[in-house]
Amino acid sequence: MYRKKECVAMLLAGGQGSRLYVLTTNVAKPAVPFGGKYRIIDFPLSNCTNSGIDTVGVLTQYEPHALNAYVGAGQTWDLDRLRGGVYILPPYQKGKASEWYKGTANAIYQNIQFLDEYDPEYVLILSGDHIYKMNYNTMLKQHKKTGADATIAVLDVPLAEASRFGIMNCNPDGTIYEFEEKPKNPKSTLASMGIYIFSWKKLRQYLIDDEGNKKSSNDFGKDIIPAMLGAGEKLVSYRFDGYWKDVGTIESLWEANMDLLSPNSGLNLSDDNWKIYGRNNGAPPHFTTKDAVIKHALISEGCEIAGEVAESVLFSDVRVAKGAKVEYSILMPGAVIEQGAVVRYSIVAENAIIARDAVVGGCPTDGDVDKWGVSVVASGVRIGRGAKLAAKEMADQDLPDKI
Questions:
Q1: Are 135 and 236 in contact (CB under 8 A)?
Q2: What gap in Å lies between CA 330 and CA 361, rounded to an integer?
Q3: What pTM was estimated for this model as a whole?
Q4: pLDDT by position in tens, the chain (length 403)
Q5: Which residues, in sequence order, are bridge partners of residue 354?
Q6: For residues 41 and 381, what is the distance between their CA atoms, to the nearest angstrom?
Q7: Are 243 and 255 in contact (CB under 8 A)?
Q8: Structure letter (DSSP) for residue 399
Q9: Could you count the other beta carbons within 10 Å of the beta carbon of residue 100?
Q10: Cα angle vertex 42, ends 243, 373, to 5°?
Q11: Which neighbouring-strand residues pair with 388?
Q12: Which of 34, 74, 234, 304 suits 275 as a labelling partner, its CA being 20 to 30 A distant?
């Protein structure tokens, strides 16, 4: 059946997220909860819907079960379409050969047949582990206007941080003449966001050629983009000036959640003109007792609060007992904080229990969370009565009662 589409999005969602440690032991990074009611993958999927891109391939690999179940048929993001919609694309056996996705470029290469079914003019490549709101259609319009073979979204970052990113060196008209992967002495501050639009016929051939190169790491940043630059293809930068954060570390995930509490962070989830859609679990409204104290916090449905909560983000069905204190923390779905327990500067994962009088985390002495660190309790773990999890420690198994 002929299903021509102008642009198809390919969402790379198979990352292990090893720098999130115990939070990604059993789930892929894009499936990690975020912002009280969402998961990280809600952001690129919502961006696609809001940008009018209705055909999305979601490439999964590491621990895909929760992610596959969450995405489903795409109804949450209005992507359950008769022609197009959302498709889960795991690695699969072809003939006698089968292999995992070896890199970002190889992942797209293995799905050339899927893309050819839609015969797109353009392919949008996205990452499933970034928090941002972006109109991809505006980027596509620039791509067509400039006649680019590839358009790469870039963000102007502080010079001190530029060496952490892939840096695009550009001419005054925005065309890219050089790409440097995490340079020690960056020539510019235009960091690649890992968001690309390619003219499909051009990219298709580069993917085939790259696959035939046994020395290639099969990566867009390391191989495809340098190859296109070396061949004289037209690569153009697309400058993005909104909120964007790679939540690939414990600290960055904590910071992005805290940004939701700051009116000046640039991350606004209350904008009706660009909604972020997430699945509703059907929990009842949250309940607070007359003794509860809540100061500047996000409280989701199903929560029962009898203690003190300040500067924190609480997901659905969280319970904070009388006499418990939660400050500058993220409590994921089903977390329980029992009477007298104290949780500060921490991430408590799904269904974890902080037992009576236990203490998790602490306060940074110098105010620098990156240096000081965030404490993390893994999903389903119980921190026993009176036990203590110090600052920057992670619990991936139960801690016994101390009293």
A1: no
A2: 12
A3: 0.93
A4: 557 899 999 999 877 667 788 888 888 889 899 999 999 999 999 999 999 999 999 998 877 778 888 888 788 888 887 777 888 888 866 655 557 888 899 999 999 999 999 999 999 999 988 999 999 999 999 999 999 999 999 999 999 889 888 999 999 999 999 999 889 999 999 999 999 999 999 999 999 999 999 999 999 999 999 999 999 999 999 999 999 998 988 999 999 999 999 988 999 998 899 999 988 887 899 999 999 999 999 999 999 999 999 999 999 999 999 999 999 999 999 999 999 999 999 999 999 999 999 999 987 665 555 556 799 999 999 999 999 998 888 999 999 998 6
A5: 337, 383
A6: 25
A7: no
A8: B
A9: 12
A10: 60
A11: 359
A12: 304
Name beta bridge partners: 344: 327, 361
Name the token pair of 308: 């003190």
Residues in contact with 58: Cβ distance below 8 Å, sequence separation at least 6, in sequence order:
11, 13, 41, 67, 71, 86, 87, 88, 89, 128
Rounded CA-CA distance 403/113 in Å is: 61
317 touches 303 (CB < 8 A): yes
Q: Each residue of 71-89: b (16+ CB within 10 Å) or e? A: beebebbbbeeeebbbbbb
**DSSP per position, 205-247:** HHHHHHHT-TT----IIIIIHHHHHHTT--EEEEEE-S-EEE-
